[in-house]
Design brief:
Elements (H helix, E strand, L loop, with lengths): L34 E8 L4 H4 L4 E6 L12 H4 L5 E2 L2 H13 L5 E4 L5 H13 L6 E5 L5 H9 L4 E4 L6 H8 L4 H16 L16 E2 L1 E4 L5 H15 L5 E4 L6 H6 L8 H14 L3 E4 L26 E4 L1
Parallel strand pairs: 2-4, 4-5, 5-6, 6-7, 8-9, 9-10
Antiparallel strand pairs: 1-2, 1-3, 10-11
Helix pairs in contact: 3-4, 8-10
This protein binds iron/sulfur cluster (SF4).
C-alpha cells in the first residue's frame, strides 16, 4: 500500500519534506517501509497501562526528535529493527492482543502514522477493541495528533522534556520543542481529557486521556522544576504526571561529556519535593531508578526488556 504522506513528508514538526516514497530518508532516518524493533508485552509503563497483563508495545524504529542521550538509541540512532509489511505487522499485533495485553501501545509513532492508521483499521476490522496508546516524545504536529484522535487513538503519553529553547537546541538541535510540546499537550487535554480511570494500583485499566511524562536529567533540576510549574499553571493539580528518574548515560553522552551519570538521590528528591509543594494529586514517581537491565536491548527479539524501573502511583 502506498501512502501519499511519505512523498513530501511533513509528518513531524521538522517538516523536512523528504521524499520517503522515492527512497529518501528524512531526519528521522526512516523511509516508506514499516520498520519495527519489537512487538511484545512490556511491564515498565505506569500501572494503569500495565496491570498484570502488560502493555502491548509496538516499538517503531527511527525518531524525529533525535535527542543525543536517547534511552532507546538503538532505535533512534542505530535503526535496529525489522521491515514488516502491513499484513505481517497486523498479524503479530493481533497475536499479541490475543495473549491478553491491556492495550496496543505505539512507541514513537509520528513518522509512521500512515502505516499505523492502516493497522488500526485492520485491528478494528478484526474485532480488536483494546485501547490504543500514542506513546511519543511530545514533538508532534497538531495535524498528526488530530488524525490520531479521529482514527481511534484513545490514550496519549506525551513526553515534556525541555522547558527552554537552549536545552532543546543542545539536546535535539531544535529550539521550538518547548513551545510545540506544550501546545500539543494543551490540544490533547482539550480533546481527550486527563487519563482515566486513574488507578494507581493498576487494577483498573486506563481507557482514555492524557498522562504527561517527564524524564529528569542529571544536573538539570531547574528544567524539571520549570516543566512542573508550566504544567501546574496551565492544567492545575488534577493533571496526571509521571516524573521518571530512569535516565542512564548512553554512548553519545560520554562522547559529548554531557549527562555522563545517573540522576542523584538529592536531585530526584528536589524534584519530588516540588511536585508535592505544587500539590499535584495524580502522580507517578520512580523513587527507585531500577538497574542497568532497565535499558532495553532491541537486538533480542521478544525479550528486549530484561528489567523495568517501576513507577509508583499516588492519588491524593
Ligand atoms: S517524520 Fe521524518 S521525514 Fe517526515 S518530516 Fe519528520 S523527520 Fe522529516
Amino acid at each position: 500500500m502506498d501512502f501519499p504522506e511519505y512523498s513530501h513528508c511533513q509528518l513531524c514538526p521538522r517538516q523536512c519534506g523528504a521524499d520517503r516514497a522515492a527512497g529518501k530518508f528524512g531526519f528521522c532516518g526512516e523511509g516508506a517501509e514499516l520498520h519495527i524493533a519489537a512487538i511484545e508485552a512490556h511491564f515498565g509503563e505506569e500501572p494503569p497501562l500495565v496491570g498484570k497483563e502488560g502493555s502491548g508495545t509496538v516499538f517503531l524504529t527511527g525518531c524525529s526528535c533525535g535527542c543525543f542521550f536517547c534511552q532507546n538509541y538503538q532505535l533512534s540512532t542505530e535503526h535496529v529493527g525489522e521491515f514488516l509489511n502491513l499484513s505481517e505487522a497486523t498479524r503479530r499485533i493481533l497475536a499479541l492482543a490475543e495473549k491478553g495485553v491491556r492495550n496496543i501501545n505505539f512507541v514513537t509513532p509520528d513518522h509512521y502514522w500512515p502505516h499505523l492508521r492502516a493497522i488500526l483499521k485492520e485491528l478494528r476490522a478484526a474485532d480488536c477493541w483494546l485501547p490504543v496508546v500514542w506513546n511519543s516524545s511530545g514533538y508532534s504536529t497538531i495535524q498528526t495528533l488530530a488524525e490520531a484522535l479521529d482514527n481511534g487513538v484513545d490514550i496519549f503519553l506525551p513526553d515534556y522534556k525541555y522547558a527552554t529553547a537552549e536545552l532543546a537546541k543542545e539536546c535535539m538541535g531544535r529550539e521550538d520543542y518547548p513551545e510545540i510540546a506544550f501546545e500539543d499537550i494543551k490540544f490533547l487535554v482539550d480533546r481527550a481529557g486527563f487519563l482515566r480511570p486513574f488507578d494507581e494500583t493498576g487494577d483498573m485499566p486506563a481507557s482514555r486521556g492524557v498522562l504527561v511524562r517527564h524524564l529528569v536529567l542529571p544536573g538539570e533540576v531547574q528544567n524539571s522544576i520549570q516543566i512542573l510549574d508550566n504544567l501546574y499553571n496551565e492544567f492545575g493539580p488534577r493533571l496526571p504526571v509521571s516524573v521518571m528518574r530512569q535516565f542512564r548515560p548512553m554512548p553519545q553522552c560520554f562522547a559529548r561529556g554531557r549527562f555522563t551519570r545517573v540522576v542523584s538521590d538529592e536531585e530526584y528528591q528536589q524534584v519530588m519535593d516540588h511536585v508535592m509543594e505544587l500539590g499535584f494529586q495524580r502522580i507517578f514517581l520512580q523513587p527507585d531508578a531500577g538497574d542497568e537491565n532497565f535499558v532495553p536491548d532491541f537486538r533480542h527479539q521478544g525479550e528486549a526488556f530484561k528489567g523495568n524501573a517501576i513507577a509508583q502511583g499516588r492519588e491524593f
